[in-house]
């Protein structure tokens, strides 16, 4: 499928705007584990994912990470072009969790179109609003929800994303997603195992009782 079929508002743009996008867009392949963008780097550009998975996270001065959100097929990544949004006052890092293919729109092209096109400006604001909601949800989870519930919810979400109850993910990776220490994750997973919700083996977490795990997340 082409860029035009993936970009959701393409048909609402003028022919000149469509041509400007098609002339500027490039196709990128990003390997799993690659650093896509960090706050100290130059703007990468706006990404439209054809397929794959990206992770956006923030990192504390002590090196502790917490996932802000993840991006999947057909998602738009605006923060990889955060330099065009002067009001952003935090650094974010974006990495590829899976081999990813995406179209990249150069910052200057997207910014010029956004300034001229109400359709693109409104679409951009909708995406930013969604991301702000994601951030607020994350803050609420960290502040008001106990870690056992957050971990249970994460495991269920990960199972839905991967389409399996056998999760090949390390305790260190989970800690990075949830903004805590690996030891905390390990202790809680062992508790989940004693409760019969999961089974732990090296490099693998198997969900053995979805109903019990769901109850733990509520």
Indicate the proportion of strand residues. Answer: 15-25%
> Which structural class matches the secondary elements?
alpha+beta
**What is the count of DSSP helices, taking H or I runs of 4+ residues?**
8
* Cα Rg: 19 Å
Low-confidence stretches: none
Distance between the termini: 40 Å
Shape: elongated
Helix content: 40-55%
- Main sheet: strands, sense, barrel: 6 strands, antiparallel
Query: Quaternary state, please?
Result: single chain
Order of helices and strands: HHEEEEEEHHHEHHEEH
Report the count of strand segments: 9
Average residue pLDDT: 91
Question: How does this structure look, described?
Answer:
- This protein has helices spanning 3-6, 15-24, 107-116, 118-144, 147-162, 171-178, 182-194, 210-217, and strands at residues 26-30, 35-37, 46-59, 65-71, 76-77, 93-105, 166-167, 198-201, 204-207.
- The protein is an alpha+beta fold and 218 residues long.
- The strands form 2 sheets. Strands 1, 2, 3, 4, 5 and 6 form a 6-stranded antiparallel sheet that branches.
- Strand 8 (198-201) and strand 9 form a beta hairpin.
- Helix 5 crosses helix 8.
- The protein is elongated, with a radius of gyration of 19 Å.
- The mean pLDDT is 91.
């Amino acid at each position: 499928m082409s860029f035009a079929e993936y970009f959701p508002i393409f048909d609402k743009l003028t022919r000149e705007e469509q041509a400007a996008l098609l002339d500027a867009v490039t196709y990128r392949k990003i390997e799993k584990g690659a650093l896509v963008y960090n706050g100290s780097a130059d703007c990468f550009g706006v990404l439209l994912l054809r397929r794959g998975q990206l992770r956006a996270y923030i990192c504390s001065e002590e090196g502790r990470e917490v996932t802000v959100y993840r991006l999947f097929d057909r998602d738009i990544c605006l923060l990889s072009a955060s330099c065009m949004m002067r009001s952003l006052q935090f650094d974010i890092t974006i990495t590829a969790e899976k081999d990813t293919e995406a179209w990249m729109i150069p910052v200057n092209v997207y910014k010029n179109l956004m300034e001229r096109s109400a359709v693109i400006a409104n679409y951009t604001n909708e995406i930013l609003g969604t991301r702000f909601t994601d951030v607020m949800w994350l803050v609420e989870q960290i502040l008001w929800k106990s870690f056992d519930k957050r971990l249970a919810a994460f495991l269920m979400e990960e199972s839905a994303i991967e389409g399996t109850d056998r999760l090949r993910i390390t305790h260190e990776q989970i800690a990075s997603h949830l903004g805590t220490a690996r030891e905390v994750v390990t202790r809680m997973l062992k508790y989940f195992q004693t409760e019969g919700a999961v089974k732990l083996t090296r490099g693998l977490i198997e969900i053995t009782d979805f109903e019990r795990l769901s109850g733990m997340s509520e």
